[in-house]
Amino acid sequence: VYKAVMDPSASDALRLFTEDQVSSSVSAVDAPNFLKDHGVFYQANPEIGRLVAQLDNEGASWEPSGLRRFLPVLQNDPRVRKILDPFDTQCRPVCWILGSNYPKHYFASTILEDEDEDHKIAVYMCSAGSQLQIFDRSQNLPSAGVRGANGMYEVPYVFLTAIKKLDEIEVRMKEGGVMIVHPRFALGSSNGRAVGYGLPEKGYKFKRAA
User: Which of 185, 49, 22 lies closest to 125, judged by CA?
Assistant: First the structure.
């Protein structure tokens, strides 16, 4: 049974992050709380890798409507389905690409510190061969960063490691998969590419446009 570990450097917490999925000890019931606590959830899935390649071949990677192609696969995963349930997967999502052309650079979809961001998620569909670097609980305040050429916010490595004292964790999606994060969560890519979709929580009254 998953229990929150408050020290982000604790070995118990790090054991929850395997190379290609969040530990199977985190159940579907626990998955939403895991995401809320750690800011990230991920799961390898070869069908997602195939769909990312198919969208690339069609030149449709930037199309927000592409999310609909992934939904049947996502809904088949009990943990992912439980995480997605409160969010509006039928809306026209914000869409962006996290490529591997900026190795050793780390990005978040926002650095805004208001409560609205706690009611959104960023869903990344990862290509086969994806290698991602993540920072457990990097969504927690404070935040920092500057707008990058890819439309995301680049979060300085020294801010993550020296100021927030977070460890870098390597994730490898050999055949592709999904990664769901808090919008302020910082991640990098050293191989492959990920198509990101921003989703708002259903029924939440946003102070700003979602």
Answer: 49
Helices and strands of the chain, counted as H and E runs: 6, 11
DSSP labels for 120-162? EEEEEEEPTTEEEEEETTTTSSP---EE-TTSSEEPPHHIIII
CB-based contacts of 71: which residues, under 8 Å, 6+ apart? 89
For residue 109 the two structure tokens come to 């979809």
Would you say the pTM of this structure is higher than 0.85? yes
Domains of the chain: 28-200 (2.60.120.620)
Secondary structure (3-state) at 56: helix
| Extended strands (E) in 45-192 | 94-99, 107-108, 120-126, 130-135, 146-147, 153-154, 168-173, 177-181, 187-191
For 35-86, what is each residue's pLDDT tens digit? 999 999 999 999 999 999 999 999 887 788 899 999 999 999 999 999 999 9
